[in-house]
Write a structure and sequence with these properties.
alpha/beta, N-utilizing Substance Protein B Homolog, Chain A, Alpha-Beta Plaits, four-stranded antiparallel beta sheet, 12 strands, binds S-adenosylmethionine, methyltransferase, EC 2.1.1.176, rRNA processing
Length: 442
């Protein structure tokens, strides 16, 4: 193992905890030049510490004489790195975990703190079989909140929406490492041929259950450094996200407006389904993100996408009645993505969710005007929160009798597809959490 690996882990965690970047992006930068073994170790600890923050702090609060609020952020990060290795990783001996944290503390903490870190970690290591969780029967919310590290308000909301046992299953599924999903560029290759090519180079892969263009790769290390990726034979996309374009199913030659389109995952997928014929107007409110759509399209050999800067909450009169298909893949709280970006659990509040549902309604209202008679409107989010999902759609439909939900079992053969909307769950479908609804303008 390279010398400064724990130093790199410490820095990466600080960056993410200080809100200086999403975990997947910061981690990709940190691990870019590392050996695979070091990169995997780094990922495991960074994700583990982020994912288990509340649980690890619960353990600190039970073994520390100092209140958590009195412990400096750097010291707390070192302690959590140590605790994660002691409590959740079998392959690191406890003594090594403690010694490495003490070494790290020599650079980032004063003498007193070094002794404190050493003592606390050793105490926990000795007592690790006896660490108690809150009593499930007395307080379900607190128990789940500590066991799976979620703010209590999320557990309260999910339990109210989905019931207690479903919430527990959902949190359990969210704590499992997801496999990597890739979307085949069907303009360049078909799924079976790509899978054969990947298998020949030692990849273990299987066709996804619901996503027609998705391959699940079980040993993905270094996949985006391959010739297959560089030459645009696939892109990285979760199965649930790929179902949006699959359910939309736009015809070749159609006009599509995608109002929240960066970085272009669904835009480029729609272009594939359209066989790169027609026109896709792809917009976003952040100018720097438009380049991401363009570079993704270039790599995949797609040339029917026109990007432009626009606020989707304001109707653009020049597009009224112009779209055969309109996609509103709205900005959302992202609670369906905690498997991949665990920090999402801690970055949101109930009031954020309320303002998001207001923005989502405004965007849906403004964008619905672009849909021609007989045209299709798809509204999707990557969150698990009825207020941002079906309630936004129902509220819209109440005000717009000219739209109705459209069943999509031909595109996704599941019972729920008959209702015209679906919520996907990690514990049920094995995908990221997602919401997709399909409407038709009559
Ligand atoms: C869920 S992401 C879209 C993901 C994208 N559809 C894809 O598949 O790659 C939501 C996007 O909405 C954009 N956004 C946020 N507020 C917006 C607004 N008022 N108007 C247009 N775009 C907005 C964000 O910049 C972000 O890129």
């Amino acid at each position: 193992m390279a010398k400064n690996i724990r130093e790199e882990i410490f820095k990466t965690l600080n960056q993410i905890e200080n809100g200086k970047g999403y975990s997947n992006i910061v981690l990709n930068k940190t691990t870019r030049d590392m050996e695979t073994r070091d990169a995997n170790f780094t990922r495991e600890i960074v994700y583990g510490v982020l994912e288990n923050r509340i649980y690890l702090e619960w353990v600190v609060s039970r073994y520390s004489k100092l209140k958590i609020s009195k412990i400096s952020p750097a010291v707390l990060t070192i302690i959590k790195m140590g605790l994660y290795q002691i409590l959740k990783m079998d392959k690191v001996p406890d003594s090594a975990a403690v010694n490495e944290c003490v070494k790290l503390s020599k650079k980032h903490a004063n003498k007193g703190a070094q002794g404190f870190i050493n003592g606390l970690l050793r105490n926990v290591a000795r007592d690790k079989e006896n660490i108690e969780l809150p009593d499930r029967k007395k307080d379900f919310t607190k128990y789940i909140s500590v066991k799976y590290s979620y703010p209590e308000w999320i557990i309260e909301d999910w339990a109210a929406m989905y019931g207690e046992s479903f919430t527990e299953e959902l949190c359990e599924a969210n704590s499992k490492k997801p496999s990597l999903n890739i979307r085949v560029n069907t303009l360049a290759i078909d799924r079976d041929t790509l899978m054969e090519r990947l298998s020949e180079s030692g990849r273990e892969c299987r066709a996804a259950e619901y996503g027609k263009d998705i391959v699940v790769v079980l040993n993905p290390d270094g996949l985006i450094d391959t010739e297959e990726y560089r030459s645009g034979l696939f892109t990285v996309q979760d199965e649930s996200s790929s179902l949006v374009a699959q359910i939309m199913n736009p015809e070749s030659g159609a006009t599509v407006v995608d109002v929240c389109s960066a970085p272009g995952g669904k835009t480029t997928h729609m272009a594939q389904i359209m066989k790169n014929k027609g026109r896709i107007i792809a917009r976003d409110v952040h100018e720097h993100k438009l380049e991401l759509i363009e570079s993704n399209a270039r790599r995949l050999g797609i040339d029917i996408i026109e990007t432009s800067l626009a606020d989707a909450a304001e109707r653009d009169e020049s597009l009224v009645d112009k779209a055969d298909y309109c996609l509103v893949d709205a900005p959302c709280s992202g609670l369906g993505l905690v498997r991949k970006k665990p920090e999402i659990k801690y970055n949101k509040s109930r009031s954020d969710l309320e303002s998001l549902s207001k923005l989502q309604s405004e965007i849906l209202e403004a964008s619905s005007g672009y849909v021609k008679k007989g045209g299709t409107l798809v509204y999707s989010t990557c969150t698990l929160n009825v207020k941002e999902n079906i309630e936004v759609v129902k509220d819209f439909l109440d005000k717009h009798p000219e739209f109705k939900l459209e069943p999509f079992e031909a595109e996704l053969p599941l019972e729920e597809s008959k209702r015209g909307y679906i919520e996907l769950y990690p514990n049920v479908h094995g995908t990221d959490g997602f919401f997709i609804s399909k409407m038709i303008r009559m």
